[in-house]
Write a structure and sequence with these properties.
- By secondary structure, the chain is α/β, with parallel strands linked by helices.
- The chain is about 50% helix and about 15% strand.
- The chain is built from 38 helices and 25 strands.
- α32 runs antiparallel to α33, α33 packs antiparallel against α34 and α35 packs antiparallel against α38.
- The radius of gyration is 36 Å and the shape is globular.
- It starts with 8 loop residues before the first helix and ends with a helix.
Length: about 1000
């Protein structure tokens, strides 16, 4: 006997259903005619049981059944509209006409006490009356209403999959018998190896995210796969505890806004389902809130809509709190509010309000009317206390951003007894902020109530992987010529040393490098080349993130010019275009060239719609902050990143291209998104993707301070400080009072120094404690002292004018000495060993007499660890035998080497060369220890000083050899004092080291030019 769907997955679905509480009745045994959709005997039984007044009013009961059947037949005129109408009826929200003309709501399903319903699973259900009879594999009935249709296929035919089952539902069954799907909650398609669910009229596609998998956020997608995932999905999805909550609260309909759109039914994905129910449960349990940490792009806005709908519709919530809740949805930007409101509105969200301004918001919240309010966090500023109700639920989108700090405090103060739920794709945990502590419930594991990881989202097909392509933007800098040119400028302008240092420091900024016209041209040329080669052929669009507003404009112009130069056109011959989106202030000092990019919300929306259309020539959008987060454009295939970012902002930025997308013209789907990194963020991207962990160890938390004791100290210090101004009226805000205060702390006096030091300390405590109630009586005196402090702070306006006068010249000097700007593609962050790298590994192995066997291509990723472990093993043996400091020195070098970031081939080779040097020193140390050669051991214990000694000895007159150690000590000391991490790439750092080296040599009467200086400097630069 061969395997068939009936003998495998179909039979399993029936068995799993019976275990979940469904009664199995074969289709041919149902009490229904093959033309009927509703099993009327079961529906009538439920109607009378749930509406006792109809027992004595059979005619009204028949009218209910008649109206239900009419609504089912109306599916022939439009399935989605009929399904929406019947969803309202099945929820109990519809009033049916009685025999005497009244309209009364009727319960058709008991959503509270599930045992009051009849759950039947039927197989081989036949429907007739159209072209030809059709037979459904498995149908799940509740009180006679077919709520789920499952189509199965055989698991043993390679050419057959769940897609074939989905096509049967969409192309055949729903087309020929739409009435059978009028009461449908969702459909299921499976061949036993994969299971997908979808609403009616969902177009099947192998990569469809609408035909969605089901599962649990507790499962590892790498472990629960294949038939095991199918069983897990079926047991979780096809049970009354899942189907009925979806029907009651979580089915939504998006209505067409114009003739180009159609009505669409949409359903929650399983992470949204779990989180929406968890929010509802926490509200009923009167918990303070919770944190939802779901991967970027997995539908957090829809999740909030589902959660709001469930809370507003639930009688248990109304009973618990004595009234229907108010749900506040908070976003941190106006465009996100607009997007969220649009989504809620099209989903048919009841009682929706979007306040125009803060006064409108405050009025809404002071009332007790239940509704959904969608607003920005900024409208809570200066709100004060608004409402004490405990049935206010706050759902915060992008919970990691401006919801912390003063704005976050403001909305918590406005509705202090509300429940606060934060949804984020990028939780933050650092010394200043913790999304976990702000929203997390301590009862939840790791302070997270719902976690949906990037790995789960990608495995489910809800988001796509993102590939990061590294770029190196190199250039040569004529340092000496630049120094000379800068000195000439300083002489011409009569600058003193302080002014030179100020100008140099101001110009030594990343913006100076990024704004070099040659660099802009090289990067934008590479962007266009990459886009036309890899992205444009797929019909996808590009986003470019630039450092600041001026560079946004520069990049937009350069990219547009490059597109015109290459005649880069759309398939219809129109030239590709570049758009700009950035915040432009409507202020007097806003540069004229910025004003043309000042967009109204409607203009920005229009640009967004253009960008999302595959046939629109708007191919690039250049931004600096806007659209980096909260922007959902599945057509975006690549993000070109040339702006430093980190952690949460970086993660949100690089996930812009991760949305699934299908080209409506070619049918080709996006396999992955791309990020092309011009700024060198590989390591930061790795940290951002890994994400933070909630700190659960109290020992790692911030120091705990007794606030009352600190407030007491504040009062004591304030009183002591006020003694400086005895008899001065601190309530007087006049100029005379200020003059009196200045007389008590004259410039340059001990009193002024005492005041500044004491006030800065006082200010720190105030900022920490405010708004502690103990501070309130002293607020006026503190603010008076703060004004005194501000009045005596030095105001160096000359430096600002200096930059305004000479900044452009200085920047132009630097750009003029940056040559050979070139962009080159970097290797993957996964380290690869080329021939040179393997040769170095062999040399290390020869030094240490290690085996090189087994280092195959598959194991190359571990070779670095093997090298370090091998050297350390050799060191450990010697450390146990010897007290020599050489081994401590070598061990420290190993630790530094282990911490070195390896991100590309060049770094790999540098790492191996350093490892080879250490291996050679280990062997030399062993030999010197065996031979008692103390001089060699001393040199190896401090290899830098050893080489410096050799350089100085070789370039010092014979009579001075006795003071060589003193000279080396001096050089070593001053370099350690002056140098800092990254000094070699900083002009000011390089100058400081050169200057101190010359000073040291001069002190000993040695030449400050020539071989001694050159060799010493080169060695210091290489090794310090």
């Amino acid at each position: 006997m061969g395997w068939t769907e009936a003998s495998t997955i179909q039979r399993s679905l029936l068995e799993w259903a019976e275990e979940a509480g469904w009664e199995h009745i074969p289709g041919q045994e149902q009490p229904r005619d093959e033309h009927d959709v509703i099993v009327e005997d079961w529906a009538r039984e439920a109607l009378l049981g749930l509406n006792p007044d109809l027992v004595d009013d059979p005619e009204s009961a028949e009218l209910v059944l008649h109206e239900l059947n009419q609504a089912v037949l109306d599916a022939n005129n439009g399935l989605v509209a009929a399904n929406e109408r019947l969803t309202v009826m099945l929820r109990g929200d519809y009033s049916f006409r009685t025999i005497d003309g009244k309209h009364v709501p009727r319960r058709l399903i008991d959503f509270e006490v599930l045992d009051n319903n009849r759950f039947v699973v039927a197989d081989e259900v036949t429907i007739a009356g159209a072209v030809k009879p059709r037979r459904f594999d498995v149908v799940y009935y509740v009180n006679g209403f077919p709520l789920v249709v499952a189509e199965t296929k055989t698991p043993v035919k390679h050419s057959v999959s769940w897609v074939n089952a989905a096509k049967d539902i969409h192309d055949v069954y729903e087309e020929e018998y739409p009435n059978f799907f009028a009461t449908n909650v969702f459909n299921v398609a499976t061949e036993g190896l994969e299971l997908r669910m979808a609403p009616i009229r969902a177009v099947p596609d192998p990569d469809s995210e609408i035909w969605a998998p089901w599962g649990s956020t507790e499962d590892d997608p790498r472990v629960v796969t294949g038939p095991a995932r199918v069983e897990r999905a079926a047991r979780l999805l096809l049970r009354p505890e899942t189907i009925l909550p979806i029907l009651k609260d979580l089915v939504m309909f998006r209505h067409a806004r114009d003739a180009s759109e159609i009505d669409v039914k949409f359903l929650p994905r399983y992470p949204q389902f779990e989180a929406a129910l968890a929010i509802h449960d926490k509200v009923l349990a009167d918990r303070p809130g919770g944190l939802i940490w779901h991967h970027q792009g997995s539908g957090k806005t829809e999740l909030m809509a589902f959660a709001a709908a469930r809370l507003l519709r639930d009688d248990a919530v109304i009973e618990k709190f004595g009234g229907a809740p108010t749900v506040i949805v908070i976003a941190d930007r106006k465009d996100l509010v607009r997007q969220t409101a649009e989504m809620f509105e099209t989903a048919g969200m009841p009682r929706l309000s979007v306040p125009e301004d803060r006064h409108d918001l405050h009025a809404l919240l002071r009332s007790d009317d239940p509704c959904v309010i969608i607003t920005t966090v900024h409208k809570f500023a200066e709100a004060g206390h608004l409402n004490d109700r405990s049935n206010i639920v706050v759902l915060v989108d992008e919970a990691h951003r401006s919801q912390e700090g003063k704005l976050g405090d403001a909305w918590r103060a406005a509705v202090p007894n509300a429940k606060f739920f934060g949804a984020t794709g990028t939780a933050i945990e650092d010394k200043d902020r913790s999304t976990f502590k702000l929203f997390g419930d301590p009862e939840d594991p790791d302070f997270v109530m719902s976690r949906y990881t990037p790995e789960q989202s990608i495995a489910d097909g809800f988001t796509k992987p993102v590939i990061v392509e590294g770029r190196s933007v190199g250039f040569s800098l004529e340092k000496e010529a630049l120094d000379e040119a800068f000195d000439e400028l300083a002489d011409e302008e009569g600058l003193d040393e302080d002014e030179k240092v100020y100008l140099s420091g101001k110009a030594s900024h990343i913006e100076t490098i990024l704004s070099n016209p040659e660099r802009v041209a090289a990067v934008c040329g590479d962007i266009v080349d990459h886009y036309l080669t890899y992205v444009a052929p797929l019909g996808q669009k590009a986003q470019v993130v630039a450092y600041n507003q001026s560079l946004v404009i520069a990049y937009a112009r350069a990219i547009q010019a490059e597109l015109e130069r290459r005649s880069a056109v759309m398939p219809d011959g129109r030239l590709r275009e570049v758009g700009v989106v950035m915040h432009v202030a409507d202020a007097k000092d806003t540069p004229k060239e910025y004003r043309k990019y000042m967009l109204t919300p409607d203009q920005e929306e229009a640009l967004k719609r253009r960008f999302k259309k595959v046939d629109d020539p708007m191919s690039f959008i250049v931004v600096t902050a806007k659209w980096m987060t909260g922007f959902n454009a599945p057509i975006e295939g690549v993000l070109y990143l040339d702006k430093p970012a980190k952690e949460a902002n970086l993660f949100q930025t690089i996930t812009r291209p991760n949305r699934p997308w299908k080209n409506p013209v070619t049918g080709q789907r996006k396999d992955y998104g791309r990020v092309v990194d011009y700024i060198g963020l590989a390591k930061a991207i790795g940290i951002a993707i890994a994400g933070p962990q909630a700190k659960t160890d109290e020992g790692d938390d911030l120091n705990v301070v007794d606030a009352s004791k600190l407030a007491g100290k504040f009062v004591t210090d304030l009183t002591r400080l006020l003694h400086l101004f005895a008899s001065v009226d601190t309530t007087d805000a006049s100029f005379e009072s200020l003059a009196q205060a200045h007389e008590r702390i004259p410039d340059g006096s001990v009193q002024r120094a005492e005041f500044v030091e004491a006030f800065v300390a006082l200010q720190t405590v105030w900022e920490f404690l405010d708004p502690h109630p103990m501070l309130l009586p002293f607020k006026q005196q503190y603010l008076w002292l703060a004004k005194i402090y501000e009045s005596i702070r030095p105001k160096d306006v000359s430096k600002a004018f200096l930059w305004a006068r000479l900044g452009a010249k200085t920047t132009e000097l630097i750009h003029g000495h940056m040559n050979d700007v070139a962009v080159k593609s970097m290797a993957s962050r996964t380290v690869t060993l080329d021939a040179a790298g393997l040769a170095l590994v062999k040399r290390i192995a020869e030094q240490l007499r290690l085996s090189t066997t087994g280092q195959t291509g598959e194991e190359q990723g571990d070779v670095y660890q093997q090298v370090l472990d091998s050297i350390e093993a050799r060191l450990r043996r010697r450390v146990a035998e010897s007290e020599s400091p050489v081994y401590k020195s070598l061990a420290q070098r190993i630790e530094k080497l282990r911490a070195k970031a390896i991100e590309n081939v060049e770094d790999s080779l540098a790492f191996l060369q350093a490892a080879l040097k250490i291996a050679q020193d280990v062997v030399a140390a062993d030999r010197a220890a065996d031979e008692g050669d103390e001089e060699t051991l001393e040199r190896l214990a401090d290899p830098q000083r050893g080489v410096l000694t050799q350089i100085v000895e070789e370039n010092t007159p014979p009579g001075l050899h006795t003071i060589v150690p003193d000279i080396v000590d001096r050089i070593d000391a001053i370099v350690e004092e002056v140098a800092y991490t990254g000094w070699t790439s900083s002009d000011s750092g390089d100058k400081a080291v050169r200057r101190e080296l010359r000073s040291a040599l001069k002190n000993y009467g040695l030449p400050v030019k020539g071989d001694l200086f050159d060799r010493t400097y080169e060695y210091v630069r290489e090794n310090y």
